[in-house]
Amino acid sequence: TWRAFIEKMPYAGIDSWTKEIATGSKKLNINVTECNQIIKNLSLRKYEGKFKIQIIWQAEFLGKEGNRLLKLIEEPTPDTIIMLIADKQDLILNTISSRCQIIKVPPFEDQAVQQFLKEWAQTLKSSDEIIRLSAGNISLAMELSGDADKNWDSLLLELLRSAYTEKFTDIFNVVDILTEFGRDEVQAFCFYSIHFLREYVRYFYTESLEHCRLSNQEQQTAQRMVKTISADMAYEISQLMEKNMMHLQRNANAKIIWSASLMEISNVLKKKKIAMKIA
Question: Global pTM?
């Protein structure tokens, strides 16, 4: 199943794989049985080629079971190559990563992502916004392509404006819009919000838009926000968006999550309003 999946989507990530095998809310892991099978496989004599090669995809899901492979990784059998592929190196046990040669694979250039979306995934929509948001991650670009026509920038601005003015009718209008979105759409909106706020913080501190991955319209929005939203506030709001993603992935009630989140954002922005009144 995995081989067929990876041939169809060579740059797919763990989220795409989770959807493919329909795990639902089950926690992913590489269990004891699979670790023992790896040890058994690499103890066999090779019959073709010079090397025995073991690829462990998403090695961070080994968890503590990775200790079972420690001796094998430290002293592999002759002519054996073990490749651990991971998105988050810090989740791999130090006892394992310290025994490995670390090779960091850099993100793709924007031009390469654009070329891929045109040639490999002809059915997907491509836009400058998707290429910026993906930041060299082709898997993410493919996921976001289904939402190419969404005006995430306008929605984020409306969310921030309603939270700042504290008009409950506007707040709950935004909540209703977000609640109607499917899981993938909400994920894409959260990704966009975090990306925009991160670039906004960069602009806030450097006072230059030269190195910010923002469109002309987003740059204008960022310039208008400077008087209202500080870098600390933007960071707090981006943290809330990350929490929302986590809760929604665990099937929490979307309406409750977004209602509470907008109230929290309103409290964050209220600090600025209070400071202005005092001044």
Answer: 0.60
